[in-house]
Specification:
Helix content: 55-70%
Structural class: mainly alpha
Order of helices and strands: HHHHHHHHHH
Oligomer: single chain
Number of helices: 10
């Protein structure tokens, strides 16, 4: 997990201990679920670009980077049969899956080096319209870095295969984000992300010519 060392998120000994803990948690997550290191890296890249456009402070960027890595860490407490199930979850299974932000928050709270992002982990599935979970936060009640993670994570999930469905095209995913801006997603963050994606796609198509 060399990427973790790109940022001096924690001082001296705490930095090493914290990075060791992060690496251990992520290895467990990758082994137990369908989450991958590549997913985390894609999330981090888009989050970085959005954070730069929003001119986040260095502290906010560090929190965003940590959240990009650890937002789903609570899935280590969810049964692997649910995490890897190829079919639609039952109501009971979905309720267990929805516990992962709270489990992740508890893990972070119990780890001094990660305590600062505990509330962010708890809030990463909240929705702009207040229909998210676990607390039903609405609009700017939701921390900005969580609003960023929400739309970036959704885009990455839509454009990559999952055990239960095939990936959408980038154009289909952009339309889905635009449809849900102001509902599921912060409309400003959604607009910034779609702009970044379209610029990347334009550059990619021009390179292929």
């Amino acid at each position: 997990m060399d990427d973790i060392n790109k940022r001096n998120m924690l001082p001296d000994r705490a930095c090493k201990d914290g990075n060791d803990i992060i690496s251990m948690l992520l290895v467990t997550l990758y082994e137990k679920s369908t989450e991958t290191e590549e997913h985390s890296k894609r999330i981090e890249k888009y989050c970085h670009d959005i954070g730069c456009e929003l001119q986040l402070s260095s502290m906010e960027m560090d929190s965003l980077y940590l959240l990009a890595l650890l937002h789903d860490i609570g899935k280590v407490g969810v049964h692997s049969n649910i995490l890897k199930k190829p079919d639609k979850l039952t109501t009971e299974e979905w309720e267990e899956m929805k516990r992962h932000p709270e489990i992740g928050c508890q893990i972070a709270q119990a780890t001094p080096e990660l305590a600062a992002v505990a509330d962010l982990i708890l809030s990463h599935h909240e929705r702009w319209d207040g229909k998210g979970y676990p607390r039903g936060l609405k609009g700017e009640e939701i921390p900005l870095v969580c609003r960023i993670i929400s739309v970036v994570d959704a885009f990455d999930a839509m454009t990559n295969d999952r055990v239960y469905r095939k990936a959408m095209t980038v154009d289909e995913a952009i339309l889905e984000i635009e449809r849900n801006a102001g509902k599921q997603f912060d409309p400003l963050v959604a607009k910034i992300l779609t702009g970044i994606i379209m610029r990347r796609e334009k550059i990619s198509s021009e390179t292929d010519l």
